[in-house]
Amino acid sequence: MDPPAAKRSRGSPAGPEERDAGAGAARGRGRPEALLDLSAKRVAESWAFEQVEERFSRVPEPVQKRIVFWSFPRSEREICMYSSLGYQPPEGEQDARVPFTRGLHLLQSGAVDRVLQVGFHLSGNVREPGAPGEPEHLYHVSISFDRCKITSVSCGCDNRDLFYCAHVVALSLYRIRHARQVELRLPISETLSQMNRDQLQKFVQYLISAHHTEVLPTAQRLADEILLLGSEINLVHGAPDPTAGAGIEDANCWHLDEEQIQEQVKQLLSNGGYYGASQQLRSMFSKVREMLRMRDSNGARMLILMTEQFLQDPRLALWRQQGAGMTDKCRQLWDELGALWVCVILSPHCKPEERAGWLQLLGTWNKLDVCPLEEGNYSFDGPSLQPTMAPSPGSEEQEEGEVAATGSRHTVFGRALQAGDLHWEDSHLQRILAGDSYSPSLTGTMGSDKSAFDPQGRPLWLGEPFPTACARVDTLRAHGYPRQALRLAGAIINTLRLQRRHQLESYKQQKKELLQKGATCITNPEGWVGHPLDPIGCLCRALLEACRLEEETLSLYPDSGPEKRKVAYQHVPVPGSPGESYLALALEVALLGLGQQRALPEGLYAQDKVVRNEEQLLALLEEVDLDERLVQVLRKQAGLLLEGGPFSGFGEVLFRESVPMHTCARYLFTALLPHDPDLAYRLALRAMRLPVLETALPVGEPHPTPLDSIPSNRFPRWFILGHLETRQCELASAMLTAAKGDPKWLHVVLGSIQQNIHSPALLFKLAQDACKTATPAGAPPDSTLLGIALELGLQVMRMTLNTMTWRRREMVRWLVSCATEIGPQALMNIMQNWYSLFTPVEAATIVAVTGTTHATLMRLQLDTARREELWACARTLALQCAMKDPQNCALPALTLCEKNHAAFEAAYQIVLDAAAGGLGHAHLFTVARYMEHRGLPLRAYKLATLALAQLSIAFNQDSHPAVNDVLWACSLSHSLGRHELSAIVPLIIRSIHCAPMLSDILRRWTLSAPGLGPLGARRAAKPLGADRAPLCQLLDAAVAAYITTSHSRLTHISPRHYGDFIEFLGKARETFLLAPDGHLQFAQFLENLKQTYKGKKKLMLLVRERFG
């Protein structure tokens, strides 16, 4: 980018040039700094140089030089802030891609030379090695600065990133680290003022000659304007000087490339579907926070630029037009944007006119149709941090009125706009922030200020909603006031403690009434976890930040991802509160927020935010290593949560739609278990409740209608119900695993699971986990835990018995294997009680079969008697299943009973009885084929005749599914002998009306003598004739079928089917000719057709051509 034009005009000389550029530089180590340098530093930081010139008629040249010298930034932190991030470095290239690091390497490699400072302008060359095989690159860098801030940069590399390039970094660091080696000159106008006319003309001509291709047109234009009397240039006193520093009216801020910021945000939003784009936008938000922490005005500038681009996102209008919600990533970015604006508006040091300008912008944006709304039913004007005794009558109606008063359209900027009404002038607030020793004795008015302190004399912060108070803490921390943030956080926690004390007293008075009623109403109209202002997170992060062990360092990677090493914390005492530490306070306030009983908000995103915020808080707590001091805090808070009544999510009575405590309870259970197992189990068992399901189910039905999960349409507001049920299952699994080896707690946990978990899929997962835990490799199994796994499995079977799912087969197999692990008695028990657990098909095909496989018997290691007992149990089961569902279980029963004659006969009789009761021909044929395979042809024949008696194949069903079964039955009867063949012919004639099929059977029977097949017991001398009994009846039936079928086909025949009909007549003739007078019968048949269908001339012509 090109350097800007001169900041202001210069017209008066400043005296002779001082040649010693380093005069007045920093003194040797250990020697006091000169008064001139101390004064010049202060002036250089806060006064524009024009103000210095106006204030003093003549400024000595040495003084000018010291002011100019100290006007360049002195800290590398700001250089780093403006030259790092802007993108998320890929893994393995973090250092190499950050401009600050690259610039530092260039400086250390000696790549910076020809550095010159002329007034408030720094220039130099930076050489950078090229790629392999390429020459090095030379970049000319120019930097303008004012009042210890870089105000503009220019580099030949044409960098198009958000912040300074590596070459600007290298030159800036050179000036900071080697300030005395930089040649220093006063502004160029001072030098020009010492020249006479000839010197000036020579200077200008040499300058034009050196750069004639670039400046000649401009030089000629300026010359023409100067020679023109009355021109604008002649009316202005003095002339511009780009090295003279800023004017009094010029803004004093660091250089920020606004155009590039807008362009990059626009590009990232257009790639919003990619994870990397969201990460880079979050990095930009982190940069805004970093600027705010440095109290850099560019933080607000950058946030304005980003907000404008967010509002210009074309997807907003599209989503609004379609009535669709934002993507989750986009919604999270908007949430962070809104929270940042709250921090900016609440700034404790901004000027009133700045805040007014920001509020005006926010008001304009807030009115835009595309401005996103804040999901959720939160009210900004919630209950104050008042230690109330109990909810006052009519408070719910008042709350509803307040919510309605806020208007139905609450955008993401609504909280920032309302924050504009807040201020920092409250005297009590000022005293809290001013020091750690604020107490009633320091106020001088004990009576009036008594309510502002707790009984221990510690300050409270009352009068505004808890989330708003926490937003103040976040603002103080964001703007670089960490100590003040901790003081206010302490006052807020004192208030919360006092409020909890009064709540417990109130609950004790109403406890009996509430327990009798068995229900309560929500006492917290807005939940603190998942709140848009994230109050609990703000307090925790502020407190934990004070306890970090490592020193604060320059963070080039705020979002460094999985490479982040574990943060270590230490106890830091709280001033004025002996025995307390900020680390303990962070744990206490996190548990207070997580354990708050609160209603689940409306809307998918608001509910998802509750879950996400809860997980973020627990992730913070899991970073803290628990010592004895923190364990005591855990035990105390766990006890208070259990006794918290309607104010606690762990209380004895819950509101129907309160947020479950499963995730928080799992953390507490794991943390408390090594130190106080009894308390850990009590807390986790209390948290197992899911009241929205309990109250929705009919009273007295411990096991609801079995489904994989309770359908969400029964609870249309609970979009995350499936997630909550999964967390409930994880808590139960953690308790089961921990209770291994302790029968008492195992049975208590089992009772809680059976009472509170209603999803069969999750119960099955629990059963599987318990079985796996109970049977570790290389160790004896835990019989109690195995029994619990089996009991859970049995419950799943009962719940899903009438509602088949695709996982039932898997569940049944697992149950059999689990019973096998326990022993033969458990296996026989599920066989004997199969009616309430399995369908007949499952019992016969899975339970009985799997329970008697060779692998199962080897696993059980049974003696002969016990093995026979198990087999008898399985056979009994199979017979019972066959009687209940012969259609699907008869064949499995026969297979299972093969080795026991009596059982096999009973199974066969069941099949015969079922055939009379309507067992389908397909199943009868299947069993008949099985009987033939077993070497029982007569029984197979019997079943085949029963099947044929039920069968009916129409004249046009020549592709009927039973064709192969009929042909097999005919082949079986032919192989048995003439008697069986004679008996089956009437059944064939009665059941089959398809002419081709009848002729096929007839032809097969005439090929060989009956009884000559492999199963035949009797022999015949020669094949049967078609004109003799019993085949003559079949022949007549086949001929009649051909005649009937022909007339049927001719009724609706079309010309395109004429060829098929001629082929059909050809097959009919073959059948006719099997009879002695077949030729005559066929001729009569054809004549009849010709007379009857003489109108079909073309068809009859084809008939004559083929058959005469």
TrEMBL record:
One of its GO terms (molecular function) is zinc ion binding. Residues 1-32, 381-403 are annotated as: Disordered. This is Zinc finger SWIM-type containing 4. The gene is ZSWIM4. The lineage of its organism: Eukaryota, Metazoa, Chordata, Craniata, Vertebrata. Residues 139-176 form the SWIM-type domain. Signal peptide: none annotated. Keywords: Metal-binding, Zinc, Zinc-finger. It holds the Pfam family ZSWIM4-8_C. InterPro entries: Znf_SWIM, ZSWIM4-8_C. PROSITE patterns: ZF_SWIM. It comes from Ictidomys tridecemlineatus (Thirteen-lined ground squirrel). GO terms for cellular component: Cul2-RING ubiquitin ligase complex.
